[in-house]
Amino acid sequence: MGIRKYKPTTPGRRGSSVADFVEVTRSTPEKTLVKPLPRKGGRNNQGRITTRHQGGGHKRAYRIIDFRRYDKDGVPAKVAHIEYDPNRTARIALLH
Length: 96
Known about the structure:
two-stranded antiparallel ribbon, mainly beta, CATH 2.40.50.140
């Protein structure tokens, strides 16, 4: 797993680096675990703007994650691959 270093374009960016997940990440997510994520854009059910300055940005899809894993206690699992998730700051792992 490589490390991507940034050029010092700003004082805060100087010396910063981030892990590159190219070897372990698939280019497309698991399709059975992806659902559409509707964007509201600050509008309510009547279509009126109720919260200003909301909306825009890149289109996202929601990744379904099993946080509880009740029936999988004690079952060994293998990490199939690590995926990028636009809705959270961490990467997510697909277990088989």
